[in-house]
Give the backbone structure.
Amino acid sequence: MTGVRTSTQMAKVAVTVEVDHLEKLTHPSRRLAGVSELIWNALDAEADRVSVRVVENALEGVDVVEVIDNGHGITHAAALHDFQLLGGSWKRDRGKSKNDKRIVHGSEGEGRWRAFALGDMVRWVSVAEADGRREKITITGLRSTLKEFDISEPEPTDEEVGTIVIVENIREGTAGALVADDAVDHLGAEFALYLEMYKDVEVNYRTFPVDPSVAAKYRQTYPIELETAHGEASLTVIEWSHDVRRAMLLCDQGGMPLGEIPPGIHAPYFDFTAYLRWAGFREYEPELVVAELHPVLQPVIEAAKDHLRTHFKNRATEVEAEVIEEWKQQQVYPYEGEPTTSTQRAEREVFDIVAVTASRVLNSNADKTSRKLSLRLLQQAIERSPGSLHRVLQEVLDLPKARLAELERLLERTTLSAIISAARIVADRLDFLRALEVMLYEPATKKELLERSQLHRMLASEPWVFGDEYALAVDDESLTSVLKKHVELLGRAELAPEEPEVLREDDSRGIVDVMLAKAIQMSVQQHEHLIVELKRPSVKIGAEQLTQIERYATAVARDERFSKTITNWSFWIVSNEMDDHAEMMAAQVGRPPGVVFQGQGICVWAKTWSQVIDDCRQRLKFVEANLEIQSTRDAAVDYLRQTYERFLPKTLAPEKAGA
């Protein structure tokens, strides 16, 4: 075919199905789903050459995707019939292609709509034999009108038989997958069994042949005995030599993939695709989206997963022996001789499992000395804490190749210990924020907790809550002395009295106002001071409280003890609620939200606990999302028990053994 022309005369066909069903088909069910469907359609049309072109623009985006084949094309009569049907594909009754050359992939007639997973406009330009002559037609569809296709009148032509599918207005989020380095490997995994079955078929993606045999390093097929009307199944496992997204493809008896599910097993060293072949998948094809919950399909899938687990258990033993023998030959293996005690045997087993799992990363370094050192360090770490390290490395080494490369570069500048420590800090902070919500808002803990001997003591160790710059702040005796000197301005005689305990009228423990003080020395004469006034939850911040804290801030800032230094003062007053006046003062134009008073070197803030916690979460949001950390109530309470057990009320305190 040489070029694309569109006739001015068009026939419009309408699909008799609800548009919401068609829209579901345009959502990608798997990576590169639209490309795969167009290739399958070409192969079902008995094409033996299929090429996919991806036209990029100057901004590294994708303008057009073209799928070109030399199949038997689409006649005008077939287009008028097929493009207005969903679920009545000619493939359903035949099971084979029109000239009986091949087993067909689809049977529901959905493939043409799946092309809209790539872009908003799709054109089929096709040349086919009809009534002893060749005719050319153009079929155009838009994602905005999925129920309609424009079909041009046929034109006589001498061009070669075949079809070009042109997809334009590429959808956001699709371009990255189309130009990814591993795209051709991903397609190779999907078409592996088909290309093995039909060796005369040639598929090219961009400038690369789709040839799964190049990347396949190990292959095994297992029969699966089933007591079903559809007979036995078989499982083919192909292990790849580089990163390929793991998947279990649900195939018909001939090996045609009809659906895809996660393999659902843990095999950290291996990149693989599992092909589960069973005649029943063809009958239940419309229900494959819920295959793992389906009463007929679920037992078949579970039987396959059992075989998959056994396969990789055996393969792990084989690979482990091969890798360790290679290290021994290279003289980088850190052990000599055989273990003589049960402890040594256990440590050696853990080391071998973890080291072999890490071997792809370790062996990527051609430097023998570096590899030997890495194995030695790994040995020492396992001897100290085998359980925790095994878990950490399992998580780390499940990363895709690109992420592992990033980790390698990162470890050139820091240590794994430092990375884990940083992640732990973020996780602990998120847990403490969740714990604050438990303590401040849950009725049982709120009634018991908020007294100066508990919450105050915890916050004294978590000053980052009020700003990251105070995470490294320290207590300062001279600052505390100044605060005590002026504390009567707040209406009480002491800064944070240890005794007596404050009791309510019902003899329950009361909540007193407490104060935190932290200082950062920026230089010899420059200091940053944070003073936090915590109000009892029953006290709303209002005009009286704001006046008190402003007078107090001014008196402290002007104290002669700091008159010779450059000092910036931040005073915070925090409670559960503010009244209307305080909320208005905390939302003044020209000031950051929360600032109620601003003077020379002085800034007074009024905030609710919900605002403080939300500000903290916003600061941690980026890191939280990238580390994929989730903080739950149980994790938060566990953090409190491990870190602040002696400050917890009875509601949150751990149960004593034998209690």
Q: What stands out?
A: Residues 297-330 form the longest helix (34 residues). Confidence is low (pLDDT under 50) at residues 2-8, 495-514.
